[in-house]
Amino acid sequence: MTEFLHVITSDGLIERLGAFARLPSELVSLSSAFDRIPAEGIMASEDLPERARSTVDGYAVQAADSFGASDSIPALFTVVGAVTMGALSDLLIGSGQTAYIPTGGFLPSGADAVVMVEYTNPVDEASVEVTHPVTSGANVLLPGEDVKTGELIVPAGEPLRPQDLGLLAGLGIASVRAYQQAKVAVISTGDEVVPVDRKPKPGQIRDANGHSISALVRAAGAIPLPFEIVPDDAGMLRAALADALGQADVVVLSGGSSVGMRDLIVEVVAALPGAEVLAHGIAIRPGKPTLLARHGGKAIFGLPGHPVSALIVAMIFLAPFLRYIQGGRLEKGPLGERTRATLAVSMHSIIGLEDYIRVRLERAADGEYIARPVFGKSSMLSTMARANGVIAVPAQAEGMVEGAAVEVIHI
Amino acid sequence: MTEFLHVITSDGLIERLGAFARLPSELVSLSSAFDRIPAEGIMASEDLPERARSTVDGYAVQAADSFGASDSIPALFTVVGAVTMGALSDLLIGSGQTAYIPTGGFLPSGADAVVMVEYTNPVDEASVEVTHPVTSGANVLLPGEDVKTGELIVPAGEPLRPQDLGLLAGLGIASVRAYQQAKVAVISTGDEVVPVDRKPKPGQIRDANGHSISALVRAAGAIPLPFEIVPDDAGMLRAALADALGQADVVVLSGGSSVGMRDLIVEVVAALPGAEVLAHGIAIRPGKPTLLARHGGKAIFGLPGHPVSALIVAMIFLAPFLRYIQGGRLEKGPLGERTRATLAVSMHSIIGLEDYIRVRLERAADGEYIARPVFGKSSMLSTMARANGVIAVPAQAEGMVEGAAVEVIHI
Predict the structure, then answer these.
(1) Is A202 near chain B, with CB under 8 Å?
(2) Most A CBs within 10 Å, among B43, B50, B85, to test the A interface
(3) N or C, where is chain B less crowded by C-beta within 10 Å?
(4) Is the ipTM of this complex over 0.90?
(5) What three-state secondary structure class fits A181?
(6) Closest chain A C-alpha to B367 CA, distance in angstroms
């Protein structure tokens, strides 16, 4: 029977995961850079805007000429032209003169402010009335006011969002140095496991883990490499592991649900020349029978065979680890948002194991959130599908009482 | 100058968007189904588990034989074999008999409960002591207890998560009927706009919108089709629009920042045979100069040219619309999580326009969230990059005061 030789806490496991090196970086073009994590802070290579630009549709003026203007006593301006987009204007705005300028247009020489079109009345083709005064710089974006040359515009370590890509594009930064995406070998094991499209014979079960773990890998921004199911055979497991370590940055084995397979995985991984077992057993529930090893700088996860346990462990440790080696922060998962909620009913927990309780997060009429534990035995796969969150109950807690304030992690 | 002929509220625009039909559905294999939205509720085609299975490593027994067992007076059982994974056992457990069973193993005939291995002591190869009583059904998952044939396991309209895929795989459902992903033509327009890899001449600007909007489309689970930049030319715009309507499910034009281009887009779209302008102007800030039209059942968005306005409008309307036609709910965006926070400083807002204020969401030491408005003119692209949330201030509000409870939408 399996003995767990190196049972560690979840914090201990996170610490061991944090000792792995991040993946190398690569140059990524902007069109592929969404959600990728920059390996270095990105600085502006020029000012934005390069020249003063109008932030409204209106009339470019010398601000001083508008002082005192009102609806009853408007200031009269001579229209000397109009700024067109896409070209520098050769207009020169003198005292008492103005030119129409569209949003984003470059301010013509001489002008230092723009009056919004709403505060003007056309008199004829050559003149316009201004009914509101403006101060110097009004409705103008000055050179470098948005971004200054050398300024940090995107920090390292945060996934790139649409607005970051817009800013990078605006500054002419056509590619970024980002961490590589992790390639993750996903290997289900066990004599009893058959692919989803095959009818299981009596005693067999279908491979749930291959699908759920691959999707989780994808959700973490990494690339799953699905492998064939490996039966309870040391030679075949050894071959699959060698193949996986050759192709992938991280290897995730799940299974076996049989004790024999569990032992086999530990044996084969531990016997790999140069491999080091970092943890064999984690003090969490579900998910205790988890293996973590290192080989040639690559992490090997041995997840429990049970689909609920395997997925919970993958959510808590694998997904954050993938985010980390791809350049992000390392924090115990799941990676979902956190919502503060009130616990709907009391629940028990085992002392000595950090307990992950599946809940349904609901919003009450008053806008507050309620966390309702999902009914059903913890080994039921349907409880994971019915849950949209988990609560982590600390190892030293005996449970939590109805009405307690809890933090729900979305799953 | 552009007149906004059909200025409507944001709720009015959402209502018009909700009148579009969803995309057709298609059959998607499980390995591609992550984050796709099922077009119909999925029912279980068989029981899970098919037969009673153990949820622990332990010994299968007749529960009645364990009654009264304790550490001081253990019950003695004769070991008649062990259940192996992957095969149906032909063991028969009689009174006083037991067999070793691994987690997930099928319960042998005669047994009705499993004693966890922790509550047993091996005596010799043929016998084992049990130190805790179990009731009938203990540590056993009964046939259909996880999922019953015909039960709804995944609802229509919710994106498939890793746990849903695991459950579908466990039940042998190898493909699902899901809504198609939207193909979205992304077209930047304007004489002054140049691609990101080209040095702008004086008066020109780089195409920020093409990149930010494409990334937003991707984040909404849709497929961006990037188009060449179209200059201020009715013929070229007409050709690009026809091409886009031929290839894509949704067309997104951005620009022009020049009034001329803005007029041109409205004219060309309105003149398209069979096109209907649904909105021309939305009562929001930023983003008022937005066009929505319909042609052959397809939506055409005309976003403002200014990168901040274009992205805000795309977050509030385009992303939710894409989620909706791909099978999800239609709610005003952005699509990010919502967090309740306290406003750090008072802020003004214009009556008559729904105002989208960029904020930085910070977590205070007490765990409460603070929303800090981002400093800078609203037309600055860098304010979008520095923000990680927005607050929607209703059209009828003059502003919000320091300390107010606000809902921050993550961006």
Answers:
(1) yes
(2) B85
(3) N
(4) yes
(5) coil
(6) 10
Alpha-carbon gap, residue B213 to B253, rounded angstroms: 10
Which domains, ranges and CATH numbers included, belong to chain A?
10-24+181-325 (3.40.980.10), 35-48+147-179 (3.90.105.10), 53-141 (2.170.190.11), 338-410 (2.40.340.10)
Q: How many CB pairs under 8 A join A and B?
A: 278
DSSP class per residue in B127-167: EEEE-S---TTTTEE-TTSSB-TT-EEE-TTS---HHHHHH
Best residue of A109, A212, A230 to probe chain B, by most B CBs closer than 10 Å: A212
* pLDDT tens, N- to C-terminus, chain B (411 residues): 445 667 899 999 999 999 999 999 999 999 999 999 999 999 999 999 999 999 888 999 999 999 999 999 999 999 999 998 877 788 999 999 999 998 888 999 999 999 999 999 999 989 999 999 999 999 999 999 999 999 999 999 999 999 999 999 999 999 999 999 999 999 999 888 999 999 998 888 899 999 999 999 999 999 999 999 999 899 999 999 999 999 999 999 998 655 667 788 999 999 999 999 999 999 999 888 899 999 999 999 999 888 999 999 999 999 999 999 999 999 999 998 888 899 999 998 888 999 999 999 999 888 889 999 998 888 899 999 999 999 999 999 998 999 999 999 999
Tell me how far apart the alpha carbons of residues B5 and B282 are, in angstroms, rounded to a whole number: 10
Which residue of B379, B383, B410 to mutate against A (max A Cβ within 10 Å)?
Answer: B379
Q: CB–CB of B212/B305 below 8 Å?
A: no
Residue B104 to residue A258, Cβ atoms within 8 A: yes
Closest CA to B87 of A88, A143, A258: A258
- Contact: B192, A85; criterion CB under 8 Å: yes
Inform me whether the C-beta atom of residue A358 falls under 8 Å from chain B C-beta atoms.
Answer: no
Amino acid (1-letter code) at residue A216: L
- Tell me which chain B residue has its CA closest to the CA of residue A102: B258
Residues 298-357 of chain A with CB under 8 A from chain B are 305-307, 311, 314-315, 337, 339-340
Q: Does B74 touch chain A (CB under 8 A)?
A: no
CB B329 within 8 A of CB B323: yes
Q: What is the pTM of this model?
A: 0.93
Task: Return the residue of B nearest to A137 by Cα.
Answer: B377
Tokens at residue A242, please? 């060698």
